[in-house]
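Supplementary Data S3. Sequence and C-alpha cells for construct A.
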Amino acid sequence: MLDLTLEALEARLRPHFRSEASAEMHRLYQVVIAENPAFYLAVERGALTLGLGEAPDFGCPRVRFYYPSLELAFAILEGKANPMEAFMAGEVRSDGHLIMALQLGLLFPPKPRS
C-alpha cells in the first residue's frame, strides 16, 4: 500500500504540476479513492495547494475524480498513465464540469510514449 501523507502528496505530485498551464485557473479537484482517504488539489492562478480529506470551500468550481486505487491515481497524476484511456476503459470516473475535468490533464500531462 502506498503512503498517503501530505508530505508524500507534495513529493509525488508537485514535480509534475505545470503551474504555467494554470495561470488563469481557479479550480478544485477532489480525489476519491476506494478504501483510502481522499485528497484534493486546489489550483489558484499558478499555485497548487494539496490537502488530505474532503476539501474545504475554496469558493471555486469543484470536480470529483473516483479512482479504484491510489496507485492508478498517482500514475495518472504523475503522467505515467493516460487519463483519457483510463476514463474510456471505465477505470476512472468523475462528476462535475466536464471541461474542468479534462483540464486536469493540462496541469498534470501524460508523458509522451517512447
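Construct B, processed identically:
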Amino acid sequence: MTLQNLIHACGFEPVLVAAPQTEVTGAYTSDLLSDVIAHCPDGAVLVTVQNHKNTVAVCTLVGAPAVLVVHRRDIPEDMLDAARREGVALLRTPQDQFAASCKIGAVLEKTAK
C-alpha cells in the first residue's frame, strides 16, 4: 500500500509527505528509539510519541518511510527540517499508539486480501 493511500484510509494528518507513492509494509510502535533500531522492519511506519529530530534519524537508519506522532503532539521545526532533508514523512493523529497501530493494521490487512 502506498503512504498516500494509508494516510487517506486512516485519516492521519499529513504534516510532510515528500514521496506519497512510497510503499508501506507495516507499522512498528515504540517510544524507545533503541528498540526501534533493534526491531523496526524496513518499510514500516513508526508510531510514537517521540517528536524530535532523533526520531527522524532512527527512521532513516532502519528504513522506516514515515513517523506517525500520536496524541496530536506538535512537530517541532528541527524535526520538520530533518524530515525534509532525509525524505521521511511526518504524520499526526489525535489517537494513542494502540488505536493508531490497530487502524494501520486493519487497513493493511484489508488490502492484503
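DSSP finds five helices and five strands in the chain. The longest helix spans residues 97-112.
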